[in-house]
Amino acid sequence: MSAIIDYLFNSPCNNFFLLAGPCVIEGEQMAFDIAGTIAPVCRELGIPYVFKGSYRKANRSRLDSFTGIGDLEALKILHAVGLENNIPVVTDIHSADEAEMAAEFVDILQIPAFLCRQTDLLVAAAKTGKIVNIKKGQFLSPESMKFAVEKVRDAGNPNVLLTERGTSFVYQDLLVDYRGIPTMHAYAPVVLDCTHSLQQPNQSAGVTGGRPDLIETIARCGIAAGADGLFLETHPTPETAKSDGANMLRLELLPGLLERLSVLRQAVNSL
To answer: What is the pLDDT of residues 93-103, one digit of tens each?
Structure first.
């Protein structure tokens, strides 16, 4: 894991690192197309890149929602994408017994926000020896994430990331409190989720929508506030995505966004 930590934090350009990909693995070609588009852009800009994709979505709002193509098949695709592009990969796990299985295929295990206090899950992830990325629950303060980090480290794993993804406000809307970035930075490196932080409920439809037009605004503010990395979901055609399409950035818009954010990061570094 030390090589991946070095890759993420010791970019020659001193740039932010990026966790990006589809919400969920829909198929092999789609995953390879997304990673194959992002990886060269990141190499050119000096952005350490981690391919993101859930092998299964366990927290869908509706029983008939798409959850995945099969755990083992999706995990094998994630592993193959990493090998093909020579990049790390990250995926979510939802229970302690999934940790060891997923760890055979990926480099970073991500703990979903709703599960960030689950001790058994955090300890199981830690014991795999993989980097553990813990998403802050919408219901928690930044200060409370200190204890999640301690659970992983006390289990013998020093490699922890924290991801800010907004705080619940009124009717499930999420607001990002950028004061939380320096607060959590005292506990672990901090990633800002630029897509889920923009989720908004559609009360009439009973589903959650997003504001992808504001992804750049969230990302810019995160870099200015000192985030080490950015997390975002992207898809070639968000309107046909099988999960969370309303949140995702259209893939063709990502290269230009990364160029602008890299310029901003260099400006921040010069201060």
So the answer is: 999 999 999 99
Report CA torsion sign: 90, 132, 212, 137: positive
Question: What is the SS3 assignment for 103?
Answer: helix
Domain tally, the chain: 1
Q: Determine which helix (DSSP H) or strand (DSSP E) holds 163, and give its type and residue range.
A: strand 160-164
For residue 255, the domain's CATH number is: 3.20.20.70
**Residue 232 identity (one-letter amino acid):** L
Range of the domain at 95: 2-269
Q: Which of 156, 129, 132 is nearest to 145 (CA)?
A: 132
pLDDT (tens digit, 9 = 90+) per residue, 98-155?
A: 999 999 999 999 999 999 999 999 999 999 999 999 999 999 999 999 999 999 999 9
Terminal CA-CA length for the chain: 31
Q: Is 84 strand, coil or helix?
A: helix
CA-to-CA separations, 84 to 63, 119, 221, 233, in angstroms, rounded: 34, 34, 33, 20
Task: Report pTM.
Answer: 0.93
Contact 2, 11 (CB under 8 A): no
What long-range pairs does 103-107 form, CB within 8 A, spacing at least 24?
103/128, 103/129, 103/130, 104/75, 105/75, 105/76, 105/78, 105/79, 106/75, 106/78, 106/79, 106/82, 106/130, 107/1, 107/4, 107/50, 107/82, 107/131
C-alpha dist (Å) from residue 159 to 2, 8, 116, 133, 162: 9, 12, 16, 9, 10
Sorted by sequence, the CB contacts under 8 Å of residue 234 that are 6+ apart come out as: 20, 21, 22, 34, 38, 248, 249, 250, 251, 254
d(C-alpha 37, C-alpha 97), whole Å: 33
